[in-house]
Amino acid sequence: MKNESARMTKKSIALIAIAGAVLWLCAAAAAFFSGRFLYEEKVKRDFIVQQEKWLNTLDEYEECRDSLYEKTVFGFSRNASANDVGLSYDEYMTAEEIGAYESPNAEFNSYYYFAQLEEDAQLLYKAYEYAFDNYESVMFVDDGIINLEQTDYVKVYRFFLLDSALAEQNIHLGSYGVTFGAYAERVYGDERFGDITVTKRGSRTDLEEFAHMSPECREMSIKKAREIAAKAPDYMSELEKAKYLYRYFCKDLTYVDGYDGTERVYDTLYNREGQCDGFSNAMSLIYSAAGIKCAEKITDYHTWLCFCADGVWYNADLTYDCIYKDNYRFDALQVGFGFSDRYLYDKVYYSENAPSCETELVYADCIAVETADAASAVRALQKSYAANGSYGCVSMDKSIYPALLNSLGAYASSNWIEGFPEYYYLVGYELGDTAVIFVVA
């Protein structure tokens, strides 16, 4: 009985253990499935919350984007690298703000080319001006407001450079590249919102060369231009003032071959040296300070300015009257002051937009000759000299220019020429397909 009782006790314990295990397994299973259910519910809730967050964000983005497309057009950054195609910028300007922007350097900008642009292009022009004034290095233009496929941003860029006396013309945008390292490129930026991707497109321009002139040099250049402009007597007409300032400024101006100066306008104003781009900008700055309206013209190889005096536009090119190699310079003659487009050296970029100069000053009494005959050229020079009183001028096709200059030299060395000054020089210039020869004391 005792053994039987022990066996029953062990059996009961085993059954209890099995029942406990079953119960534990059931509880564990229940907990597992309950936990899995709760986990799945949590995942579903999290997903719904995240989805709602995405959708709310997207709604907010679309609302914001619509607002931005109505107003925000340009993004600027001082620090973005040239290879960074991201769309994060330090500063945003709205179209309204850009359109209403008034440059502190407005008096040194003629806005001649600006006035010929369509509304969207004018907005882009003002953005370039803002970037230039504030030494911005990167500009992003959103396609949402300006269709860059139809807006020639290269042309707009050049128009700003030609209008502004402070912005140098040697900074040229190309289709997707520019000289001196600045460039424009298409930018594509994707932003993901859940399984939705929003693509933004625009054009970014690296404007690092806009910071070409330091703020100190820009301020000092303006100061110097004002000092020079103040030298012209108040009683003079605009044309007389323009001639006075041109003669004053070019008298000791030196052309430097291989010039690579970074402060072209400053160097021209303070050191009186440089090349054509610095010359034209410096003279434009002086004229603007004197209240004389001017704009610039440019070809593949050359830059000069034109100015408006008493309602008439004239070309002015200091390169012809600076100190350069064997250039002849005379107090009575400024070859580069006040000539018409007939005597332009080369084809002008955007000639249909540039100021038209049809009036002659320096070549007003120039007489055309058709042969290399010295005697007939001398008669023309005598007539021109008598009309002008300080120099005579003949023009000819460039093909006969060398022979005529030689024959005139030979003729003058062996003949006394009535009506010429006692001591005189014969000097010549080639201007495109035309050449000119002057007799000057």
Q: Roughly how many Å is the radius of gyration?
A: 38 Å
Q: Termini distance?
A: 156 Å
Spell out the helices and strands N to C.
Answer: HEEHHEHEEHHEHEHEEEEEHEHEE
Helix content: 40-55%
Model regions low in confidence, pLDDT < 50 over at least 5 residues: 1-8, 67-73, 80-85, 172-183
Overall number of domains = 3
How many strand segments? 15
Structural class: alpha+beta
Please tell me what the overall shape is: elongated
- Mean pLDDT level: 77
User: What does the main sheet amount to?
Assistant: 5 strands, antiparallel
Number of helices: 10
- What oligomeric state is this? single chain
Q: Tell me the strand percentage band.
A: 15-25%
- How is the largest sheet built, in terms of strand order? 2-1-3-5-4
If you had to describe this structure to a student in words, what would you say it looks like?
- With 441 residues, the protein is α+β, with helices and mostly antiparallel strands.
- The protein folds into three domains: 70-212, no CATH class; 216-357, C8orf32 fold; 365-441, Translation Initiation Factor IF3, CATH 3.30.110.
- Helix content is 41%, strand content 19%.
- It has ten helices and 15 strands.
- It has helices at 2-71, 95-99, 119-133, 153-163, 215-229, 238-250, 264-271, 276-289, 374-388, 401-414, and strands spanning 72-77, 91-94, 138-142, 183-193, 196-206, 254-255, 273-274, 293-298, 303-309, 312-316, 337-339, 367-368, 391-397, 425-431, 434-440.
- Helix 7 (264-271) links the parallel strand 6 (254-255) and strand 7.
- The chain is elongated, with a radius of gyration of 38 Å.
- The model is unreliable at 1-8, 67-73, 80-85 and 172-183 (pLDDT under 50).
